[in-house]
Amino acid sequence: MKKKILNEVLQALDIKATKSRMELIEIILGSNDHMSIDDILNKVRKSKSNIGIATVYRTLKLLEDHNFIVKHVFKNNTIVYENTFDKAHHHHLIDINDGHVVEYENVDLEKLIHSIADQLGYELTGHSIELYGRKKVK
Ligand SMILES: [Zn+2]
Fold first, then answer.
1. What secondary structure does DSSP assign to 32-57, as a single string?
2. From the CA of 102, how far away is ligand 1's center (Å)?
3. Whole-number pLDDT of residue 38
4. What percent of the chain has pLDDT over 90?
């Protein structure tokens, strides 16, 4: 993760740039994955830095409030965090067996969504489509 971005984040959050906080923010924002709280806590543990669980939760909330991350709460109770940097618009498919989140994009789907809104007389300001499924057995 670039130093410049990290500094911008710290400035926006208006928090002191302690070493452990910076490491934590790197862990959270340095990944393009969809991370559960367990994923994040595991990474924190592996980093061997002195970051308490309360700090993790507080920092996640701050990052969410400032739109650096999005918290997805899917209908199968999977909760994951995802950073909002450099990520193109996409949708999610959630594996109902293991909670794995797959990203997909589809131009035809985007066109269809916009035409539906249009037909209903609305200008679309956002949309969210989640697919749920299990892997096909071959
Ligand atoms: Zn995603």
1. -S-B-HHHHHHHHHHTT----HHHHH
2. 7
3. 93
4. 62
Domains of the chain: 3-83 (1.10.10.10), 91-133 (3.30.1490.190)
**How many angstroms separate the alpha carbon of residue 52 from the centre of ligand 1?**
27
SS3 content of the chain, % helix, strand, coil (to 5): 40, 15, 40
Q: Supply 76's token pair.
A: 């199968």
**Digit-coded pLDDT (tens) for 8-43:** 888 888 888 888 888 899 999 988 889 999 999 999
Distance 80 CA to ligand 1 centre (A): 9
This prediction has a pTM of 0.81
Distance 72 CA to ligand 1 centre (A): 9
Residues with CB under 5 A from ligand 1 (ion): 82, 103
Is residue 132 classed as helix, strand or coil in its secondary structure?
Answer: strand
**DSSP state string for 55-83:** HHHHHHHHHHHTTSEEEEE-TTS-EEEEE
Nearest Cα neighbor of 8 from 81, 66, 87 is: 66
